[in-house]
Inverse folding.
């Protein structure tokens, strides 16, 4: 009886293998279902997404180049490149100069507001000498053929002559003259005897509401032969001589406090 059962099982197995070889698989046959692992399922989905594949290839390429690229790159990380080539600049030009360059005014109806002329601090060619840029320097020069010129809130800072006026109907309003003592501290006194705040060889001018800061006693406040009028000028500094004339000095008057009414 046992032999018959074994015979039947072997016969059924042989028949099944014959069917598989012949290509006949029934729907209820378990062998027709192919089971994939989770990793293979993820990989198949990844392969189907072209954008994901392209991004992965790009990232892998970047990582490989970052590690192996320096082996083929001919330059070092700290190497600096210098390249010199001629350049034509037609719209601007800069020139180094030690000369004092102020305002040279010529013609009529010229109006200047908040112009600051400053010489800066440039060393003298020799100890005790006047710095080169201060020799014969003029902050604002108004020529003879000038008329109706207005300077308002301008600064003549560190120059041999602050304002040189030869024009007519010149108005210098709210302007200031001052001096950088660091430029003349070591200059011999005889080199500083021709310094002027206002110089007027001719013409007419009105100077009002301005300020003069005088730190050097030989400096002359005004010298001229023209028609000049000064009004409400504030004078500051420690360079004034005793009894020195201050044209148009602004006199501040302090009114006494009002008396308290008697109780």
């Amino acid at each position: 009886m046992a032999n018959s059962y074994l015979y039947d099982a072997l016969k059924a197995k042989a028949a099944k293998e014959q069917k598989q070889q012949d290509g006949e698989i029934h729907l209820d046959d378990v062998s027709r279902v192919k089971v994939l692992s989770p990793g293979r399922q993820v990989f198949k989905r990844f392969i189907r997404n072209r954008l994901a594949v392209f991004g992965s290839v790009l990232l892998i390429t970047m990582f490989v180049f970052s590690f192996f690229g320096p082996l083929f790159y001919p330059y070092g990380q700290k190497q600096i490149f210098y390249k010199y080539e001629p350049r034509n600049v037609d719209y601007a030009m800069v020139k180094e100069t030690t000369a004092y360059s102020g305002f040279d005014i010529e013609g009529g109806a010229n109006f200047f507001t908040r112009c600051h002329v400053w010489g800066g601090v440039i060393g003298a060619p020799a100890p005790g000498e006047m710095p080169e840029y201060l020799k014969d320097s003029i902050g604002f020069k108004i020529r003879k053929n000038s008329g109706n010129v207005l300077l308002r809130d301008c600064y003549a800072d560190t120059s041999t002559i602050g304002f040189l006026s030869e024009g007519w109907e010149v108005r210098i309003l709210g302007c200031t003259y001052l001096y950088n003592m660091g430029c003349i501290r070591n200059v011999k006194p005889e080199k500083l005897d021709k310094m002027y705040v206002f110089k007027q060889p001719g013409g007419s001018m009105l100077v009002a509401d301005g300020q003069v800061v005088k730190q050097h006693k030989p400096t002359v406040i005004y010298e001229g032969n023209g028609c000049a009028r000064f009004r409400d000028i504030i004078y500051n500094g420690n360079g004034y001589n005793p009894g020195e004339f201050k044209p148009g000095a602004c006199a501040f008057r302090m009114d006494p406090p009002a008396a308290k009414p008697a109780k």
Helices lie at 2-22, 38-48, 50-72, 181-184. The longest helix spans residues 50-72. Residues 190 and 213 are 21 Å apart (CA to CA). The two ends are 149 Å apart (CA to CA).
